[in-house]
Design brief:
Number of helices: 12
Number of strands: 21
CATH architecture of the largest domain: Alpha-Beta Barrel
Helix content: 25-40%
Largest sheet: 9 strands, mixed
Structural class: alpha/beta
Bound molecules: pyridoxal-5'-phosphate
CATH class of the largest domain: Alpha Beta
């Protein structure tokens, strides 16, 4: 048995499930995303254990990584899905997750998406405005199909996280004003083809101070308890995702504290709870391997130019995110302070700034850790760069899980216009 995740062998070389990372890059090239199903399973089971005594269901937040095999793997472990587009819906169906295990979240579901979801008996719509409710009502009554509706509450809570992934304050586009929720929930009861199923909240991502969850969940439960006292049924509460993970150490997500918080609030209640974890299930199970192209010095500043770039991993420049970076094969040497940058023609194209790293040379391999979530899924082809190859390691075998386009293929997808002048 090998340790789960990415570990060093006796020669200080990074391995996964008994396979040397350098063997994988020899075979598949770089930049290369590698996912370990061992760690995915471990995190999933830990999350399941966290929520099982409060009657919790897991709906993997597909936006974190929508690779078919990753969705399929979590689906096989029993997960449902939290989706935000019909594209994600189709991917989940292709990956074997049934629509009756899918929660449709998101502020901008369009009418076609609503119709497809309804026709496929999606588990529930988490709706974010009265206007959205009106659209769903119109479509559901035209189709004579019932829509299960959960109201996503905006509790006006600002968790301590990056502002671009904070979703619980009133200034953000997300959720229904907490003061409008009870009125709107009662309105659900007046509409045919609308079946009220509960309330939900998701205050953001990468949250470490769980008192914000505690406050949001208590607020949600108070509204639900009041509605129930007034004779309305509120069978489910959706508590969203958002648990922070450690990008600079191997410390696990703090499922223990999270379990205590949800148990204290919900153990004695009879709500069916849903959870939408994304990052905490998949982030640590992925790495991005990149090769050093060359070193460059400029007025005493050191740059390490690598073959991965912001089109493969936008998190550093978009969210000021930190990713731990290590040599695939450790060596002894002097540490210097470097900027690790990609080849894209943007100053914002960096993987790490002012980072201490042992002096590297061309063709050395670097591991960018914790790149399983919000990484390859946010890729682009900027600067006409082709996608990185992605592989999955399962039961000691490697599988190429994404066919990447060659540049010739991408050229063929564009249509030439006959300019006659
Ligand atoms: C509605 C909703 N649920 C769940 C998630 C997943 O969050 P995380 O990946 O932090 O667990 C997100 C992501 O921000 C989200 O918007």
């Amino acid at each position: 048995m090998f340790p789960s995740g990415f570990y060093r062998d006796e020669n200080d070389e990074l391995n996964v499930q008994g396979i040397k990372i350098s063997d994988l890059t020899n075979r598949f090239g770089t930049p290369l995303f590698i996912y370990d199903t061992g760690l995915m399973k471990e995190r999933y089971e830990e999350f399941l254990d966290t929520v099982k005594n409060v009657n919790g269901n897991i709906h993997y937040a597909v936006k974190a990584n929508d690779s078919l095999n990753i969705i399929k793997f979590f689906g096989k472990l029993g997960s449902g899905a939290d989706i935000v587009s019909i594209g994600e819906f189709e991917k989940c169906v292709a990956a074997g997750i049934s629509p009756n295990k899918m929660i449709f979240s998101g502020v901008g579901k369009n009418k076609d998406e609503i119709e497809i979801a309804l026709r496929n008996n999606i588990l529930q719509f988490n709706i974010e405005s009265e206007e959205e409710l009106n659209d769903i009502y119109n479509i559901a009554s035209k189709l004579k199909l019932t829509a299960n509706i959960c109201l996503r509450v905006n509790p006006d809570i600002a968790p301590d996280t990056h502002k671009k992934i904070s979703t619980g304050e009133k200034e953000t586009k997300f959720g229904i004003d907490i003061d409008d929720v009870a009125r709107l929930y009662k309105r659900l009861y007046e509409l045919d083809y609308i079946n009220p199923v509960g309330l939900g909240v998701h205050i953001g991502s990468q949250i470490f101070d769980f008192s914000f969850f505690e406050k949001a969940y208590l607020d949600l439960k108070n509204i639900a308890d009041d509605l129930k006292k007034n004779g309305y049924k509120v069978p489910t509460l959706d508590l969203g995702g958002g648990i922070g993970i450690n990008y600079n150490s191997n410390k696990k997500p703090n499922f223990i504290t999270y379990k205590k918080i949800i148990s204290d609030i919900f153990l004695k209640s009879d709500y069916q709870l849903s959870f939408e974890p994304g990052r905490s299930l998949i982030a640590e199970a992925g790495v991005l391997i990149t090769k050093v192209i060359r070193n460059k010095k400029n007025k005493g500043k050191n740059f390490v130019i690598v073959d991965a770039a912001m089109n493969n991993l936008i998190r550093p420049t978009l969210y000021d995110a930190y990713h731990k970076i290590e040599l695939v094969k450790d060596k002894i040497g002097e540490e210097i302070v470097v900027d690790i940058v990609g080849p894209i023609c943007e100053t914002g194209d960096f993987i790490a700034l002012n980072r201490k790293l042992i002096e590297v040379k061309s063709d050395d391999l670097l591991t960018i850790r914790t790149a399983g979530a919000y990484a390859s899924v946010m890729k682009s082809n900027y600067n006409s760069r082709v996608d990185a190859v992605e592989i999955l390691i399962h039961d000691g075998k490697s599988y190429k899980i994404k066919q990447t386009d060659t540049i010739q293929n991408t050229i063929l997808k564009e249509k030439m216009v006959d300019f006659n002048f």
